[in-house]
Amino acid sequence: MQLINISDTVHKLILDDQEIILVGTAHVSQNSVEEVKGIIETEAPDRVCIELDDGRMKSKTEKKTYENMDIRKVIKEGKGFFLLANTALASFQRRMGAQTGTKPGEEILGAAEVAKQADIPVSLCDRDIQTTFKRAWAKSSLWNKCKLLATLISAAFSNEEITAEELEQLKSQDTLQTLMQEMAKELPMVKEVLIDERDQYLGRSIFEAPGKKKVAVIGAGHTNGVISTIKSLSENKQTPSLEELTVVPKGKPIGKVISYLIPILIVVLIVASFISSGWDQGLRTFLYWILVNCSCTFIMTLISLAHPLNILACTITAPFFALNPVLGVGMLGGIAEATFRKPKVKDFEGINDDAMKLKGWYKNRILHALLVFLLSSIGSAFGTLVAFPILISHL
After folding, report:
1. Nearest one of 284, 259, 294, 286 to 270, comparing CA atoms
2. Which one has a higher pLDDT value, 105 or 345?
3. Rounded-to-integer distance, Cα 235 and Cα 390, Å
4. Contact 103/364 with Cβ under 8 angstroms?
5. Pick from 242, 249, 235, 243: which is nearest to 200 by CA?
């Protein structure tokens, strides 16, 4: 493979049977939008490859995607955390775009539009976003899951301003390499799934896409990884197949064991208190468990400003849901909130804008249901954590 670096963001890869012009972009940069359009028009490729999957392409081109969503069904199916992460990430990109006057992913859509006008076929080369989040979730420890959600949500609500010039600097190889190294230190498994695996997926998808001359438009952060993957493929080196990169790994047995072990331990501690200290002390221990879990859940659902009946329901049922390894009080809280305060058309229409500010998560009924789901889950989990030493001390 021959690599020609046309600029910091544009690279030409000359292979035995094809030529690939790789364009690295900042997804909220106006300069990237203009650069992509210019390259496609100048190079006149027979195929344009873009960093999008079918689901995200539809979400960007079909305005009614959210209107077809049943928030209660999403939470019931256990997809609440995935939707939270997806919404927070989209909010962060949208806020960045608002600062620079460019819609997130506009250069990707621009590439698709230019290709369509020139009657050039387009290949969607990215992995499905849900698969990416599920793999990141399955491969992360509980602590890393918490850090991932906290990072996404804090980024969505951050007031830090970033200029168009600073965005352009982020496309620099040295700057990106430093950022990737920092992410690898803080969230190694997340970096592996969100960056490394997608580099491999994008690289293979672009390499295997039909065409002799292809323009591939990807985020600048993927440039080095995609080039490395295409180089390996051109040399017939062993690289993961697309199928291998889309399989969602089963949860680690230890995670399932812990989900059952915690409620069993709680029951054992309460029963042990009855046996070792008598009926009165055992009953007192049981009431401590109830009080601690109810109190923590009540505080968090109150902070979420859930419907009064929902606060009452979550508070009362929290200790019992905590003993169930399958269901959680967050599921009840999210579903009940969407039932008591059914989302309206304006909530679907304004979800993207509302997600960019904290007040919007309370005002928008879809986001509010997710907020109640998250905070009630945190409240019950914290209550269980606090209750353990208290139960042990009363043995």
Report:
1. 286
2. 345
3. 61
4. no
5. 242
pTM over 0.85: no
Six token digits for residue 197: 């695996």
Phi, psi of 252 (to 5 degrees): -65, 140
Give me the helix-helix angle, 308-321 and 253-303, nearest 10°: 150
Distance CA 42, CA 7 (A): 15
Place of tokens 């659902």: 301
The encoded tokens of residue 84 equal: 């939270």
Report DSSP state, residue 195: I
CA angle 340, 345, 347 (to 5 degrees): 70
Q: Could you report the per-residue pLDDT of 138-187, keeping only the tens digit for each?
A: 777 766 666 666 666 665 555 555 555 555 555 554 444 454 455 555 56
Question: Rounded to 5 degrees, what angle do the CA atoms 292, 294, 298 make?
Answer: 120
Sheet holding 122-124, edge to edge: 2-5, 10-14, 19-25, 213-219, 47-50, 122-124
The whole-number pLDDT of residue 385 equals 84
Query: Quick one: CA torsion of 179, 180, 182, 184, rounded to 10 degrees?
Result: 170
CB 208 within 8 A of CB 200: no
What are the C-alpha distances in Å from 277 to residues 231, 232, 273, 290?
Answer: 70, 67, 6, 18
Confidence tier at 60 by pLDDT (50, 70, 90):
low
What is the chain's mean pLDDT, rounded?
80
Alpha helix ranges (H) inside the chain: 30-43, 54-61, 71-76, 80-100, 106-117, 129-139, 142-157, 164-169, 173-186, 188-191, 198-208, 223-234, 253-303, 308-321, 329-340, 345-349, 351-354, 358-363, 365-393
Model pLDDT, residue 88? 65
28 pLDDT band, cuts 50/70/90, is: very low
pLDDT at position 357, please? 79
